[in-house]
Amino acid sequence: PASAQRDADGALAIGGVGVAELRTKYGTPLYVLDETEVRAHARGMHDALRGAAQAHGTDARVYYAGKAFMSAEVVRWVTEEGLCVDVCSRGELETALAGGADPARMGYHGNNKRVSELERAIEVGIGAIVVDSAIEIERIAAIAARRGVVQRVFVRVNTGVHAETHDFLATAHEDQKFGVPLDAAPVSVARIREIPSLEFGGIHCHIGSQIFGAAGFVESASRVVELYATLLAGGPVSTLNLGGGFGIAYTRVDQLTPFPELASAVVDAVARECEVRGLPLPELAFEPGRSVIGQAGVTLYEVGTTKNVSLGERGDRLYVSVDGGMSDNARPALYGAQYSARIASRTSDEVPALVRVVGSHCESGDIVVDHEYLPGDVTPGDLLAVPATGAYCYSLSSNYNQAPRPAVVAVRDGEARVIVRGETLEDVLARDLGIAPAPGTRA
Ligand code: LLP
């Protein structure tokens, strides 16, 4: 986070809280979230996207994609900064409600929402359910009819554009599970329009995640506007939701389009596409997750062991083992994601060494930072900070090797507080009835 600074003694402070204090009070590994930065990103994205829409005479809603990091406290921050909330499970829905999000400003996603989940979403008055298949239309309609309400629904379409990181492919990703094919969408929309318990809100698309440039969004928007033109012939279409996916910088080599620029490029593209076809500009919606919270998070680890491995003519590599790993950050193992690291507890003038930061789990793919240069005197007891771990680390965390999940601590103006308590070993062991049979739970 921008607030991360070295104190006079060389130790890192995040949000004005020193890492030594964080280690003493909460232990490691520890997820640290800078509240001020989450709020600033939420507000910044909200203002940039709404501003871009308003420049064309329409408006935009910005939903926080809770899958990136879901907790009641974070929901409170982002909704206070003007965001709506996007959820994709019962658990996310309940957390968002607990965080005070207005259900009328929530969207519900998923390719296989359970009937009980749909029931609950409709019961609490969810603003939009994003339909992912024709089958689901009938399910939602039946529940809404039984409850005597009219449910607003969107249709998620697969535009055939899937932009993933640097790899932007035009049609190769039609073969995936989400959404209704573009050419089948008019049939689904016609069906929705004839059902009295449903209101058609508009079209949704999402082309991928960690996208750096505007090209994929622009291509997808142009395909969606073509569909929008077709659908307008049969009735109103109030909103086009273009999903999330805006990339963030994980390491210094990541080159991004600055956010306000990207937002305008995408919104301008939709406006242009509508203009050339002589169509009214609809309201727009977006669902950023990673770009709201990713850079506001840091994971703190303690170094346990170091080991030098010779790479022959290529020199040496210092393996630095920390007290977490793929259970608190699965992204390197899952996606080959790249991170960086710093010694957080002190500075050093030692010559940098090529380092691989690895976790404590029982597999060699348990990598936290694949390659980094750290001072060659990095040693057991040092604290390492891995930045940009706010998104999809805590939310993808696991108990692999019976590891308890770390706590999440929010820092702000020199104060730290736990917003998600860490698991204890007892928490992890408690579900195994062979270890701790609770009275009456065994035959
Ligand atoms: N809307 C929809 C419908 C989505 O499926 C997603 C992400 C988002 C919004 C938010 O995307 P974002 O702005 O955060 O990129 N676990 C992966 C990312 C999976 C994204 C899934 N859907 C990772 O760690 O990179």
TrEMBL record:
Pathway: Amino-acid biosynthesis; L-lysine biosynthesis via DAP pathway; L-lysine from DL-2,6-diaminopimelate: step 1/1. GO terms for molecular function: diaminopimelate decarboxylase activity; pyridoxal phosphate binding. Substrate binds at R290, R331, Y335, E363, Y392. Its cofactor is pyridoxal 5'-phosphate. It catalyses: meso-2,6-diaminopimelate + H(+) = L-lysine + CO2. Pyridoxal 5'-phosphate binds at G245, E287, P288, G289, R290, Y392. GO terms for biological process: lysine biosynthetic process via diaminopimelate. Keywords: Amino-acid biosynthesis, Decarboxylase, Lyase, Lysine biosynthesis, Pyridoxal phosphate. Pfam families: Orn_Arg_deC_N. Its EC number is 4.1.1.20. Belongs to the Orn/Lys/Arg decarboxylase class-II family. LysA subfamily. Specifically catalyzes the decarboxylation of meso-diaminopimelate (meso-DAP) to L-lysine. Homodimer. This is Diaminopimelate decarboxylase. It comes from Microbacterium keratanolyticum.
